[in-house]
Structures are given as C-alpha cells and as structure tokens.
Amino acid sequence: MTPTRHRVMVHPHQQPLPPFTAPGYAVAYFPDGCPPHAPHWPAADGRYPGPHVTTVCPDCLPEARLSADLSAPVTVPADMPMIYALEPIDTPPDLPAVLDLLHEAGFTRIARLPLRGAWPERQVLTADHPTHHSRVILHSQGLRYDLHYPGRDPYRGSFGPDLHLTALATLLLTAGYSLPSGSPEEIPLAGSGAVLLTADETADLIVSGDYPDGGSADIAAGLDLLDAVRAGTILAFRLPDGSLATALNPLLAPPTEIS
Ligand SMILES: [Zn+2]
Predict the structure, then answer these.
(1) C-alpha 57 – ligand 1 centre gap (Å)
(2) Is 81 inside any structural domain?
(3) pTM for this prediction
C-alpha cells in the first residue's frame, strides 16, 4: 500500500502559543479508514501514531470537526509530506540561531506541527523548504533532517541535543544548499585562513588533482575521502597555499539511513 495522496486542511479552533503557530496545516486523509499501521509512512513525517491521532478518515472526521475547521479531502502530488503547514508564517526578526541558519538556506516554512516521532512533544518545530521537499524537525532531544536537493543524493539522519551550528551548516552545504557569506561556511582552521569546501568542490579537486601533491595522490583513497566528505564526517579545506587539508568533523554524527 502506497502512502495516501489525500489531505484535509485543518484550521484548529485553539492554537498552541506563538511564535511559529501555523494558522492552518494539512494532514493525511485515508478514505478507507485510518489504518492500524502505516508501513509506508514517510520517515520525514516522523512516526505514524496509530489511527485517528494525526490523520483523518470518514470515521473520525466528525470528532475532528469538534476542535478544528476541516476542508473537504483534496488530492496532492505524491511527494507532499503527510503533515505540512499551508503557508509560511510571519517570522519574527530575531530567529533562534538554528532557525536563522535554516531560514537563510531557504527553509522558510517554519511552524509547529503535530508530528509524532522519537520525541515526547505532541507539537514540534518543523522547517520545510518550500520546493525541494526537505525538512528539518527540531525537538527536545535534538534535530532530525531529511534533505533533498535537485541532482543530489538525499541526506537523512539526526543530531543529538548538543547540536553545533557549524555541523548543521556543513550538512546543508554538503547536501547542496548554499548559505550567504558570513555564515559558518568559512570555518577557520587554526587561524590558517583555510576555506571549507563543499562536497562538489572537493570532488573537483580530487578528480582534477589540481593541488600540491594532487598529481601523486591515490585516486581510490581520494574517492574514500569524498564519500566521507559527502557523509559529513570529514571536513575538507583548501589552505591558502592551495593544498587540500582534511579534518574529522567531531560535531557531526554520521548520517544514518532511516528506511
Ligand atoms: Zn480516522
């Protein structure tokens, strides 16, 4: 059974406290009844919480209408999340640093949504990219990411609660997103003036061998390095003399595939 493509638009009568209160959001609608299990529930939508909790069907529709205005079911494109904010909310001028970074990378749809998962909250802060179907979920135990970028491999995984902004910036850059200058993309390496490279820049450098010692470098080792850079576990830098330097990224847990 493939995930349902039906959604209903929900406008709750009572909202959680601002900020990041979504005026309206979409939830999955199952015309044949909310199933006991949903094995194809997308990982980006957390966990399926069981029938009639965050999804709607003909059986639970009357009860759901007691606490919210619900639209008639609509059909959406196959890659739409099960639960998503209908509109970007007005973002306050002072965003927390993590949200500011995500907002600058284009994750402008920021709202609290009733997404259940490996976290205790019933509502979690969700930052969606409006066109790339990328999502970052901030919860009390860390951050979950599901990143897509046209022409790139997807990245899925999580950070623990001790998230470091540099690690998130590195991940976003590695996944294909760009950040404005002045963001943590330029990480000084022990005052050397080294510039952090994206995975594509590292690949160009390894393939071309266009750096000191590049001509004698082991291609197989270079490809292993590139895999690690793409996974975010290794940071690659270009030093002022043009040479390639690498460092373990101790702040970034290796991305884990969540099936
Ligand atoms: Zn139901």
Answers:
(1) 4
(2) no
(3) 0.70
Ligand 1 centroid–CA 54 distance in Å is: 8
Q: What is the pLDDT of residue 99?
A: 87
Give 112's Cβ-side CA count (13 Å radius). Answer: 14
Question: 225 C-alpha vs ligand 1 centroid, how far in Å?
Answer: 48
Dist. CA 136 → ligand 1 center (Å): 27
Decide: helix, strand or coil at residue 103.
Answer: helix
Ligand 1 centre distance from Cα of residue 12 (Å): 17
Is residue 254 in a domain? no
Across the 259 residues of the chain, what is the mean pLDDT of every consecutive 10-residue run?
A: 89 81 93 95 93 96 95 93 88 78 91 90 90 90 90 84 76 84 44 66 82 72 79 73 68 44
pLDDT at residue 153, rounded to an integer: 82
Q: CA distances (Å), 119 to each of 19, 53, 113, 128, 251, in order? A: 20, 16, 13, 19, 21
pLDDT at 192: 45
* The pLDDT value given to residue 4: 92
Token pair recorded at residue 229: 């850079």
Q: What is the pLDDT of residue 187?
A: 42
55 Cα–ligand 1 center, Å: 6
Domain count along the chain: 2
Q: Is residue 212 part of a domain?
A: yes
The parent domain of residue 101 ranges over 97-175
Instruction: Print burial letters for 70-80: b (CB count within 10 Å at least 16), e (below 16).
Output: beebeebeeeb
The residues placing their C-beta within 5 Å of ligand 1, an ion, are 34, 52, 57, 60
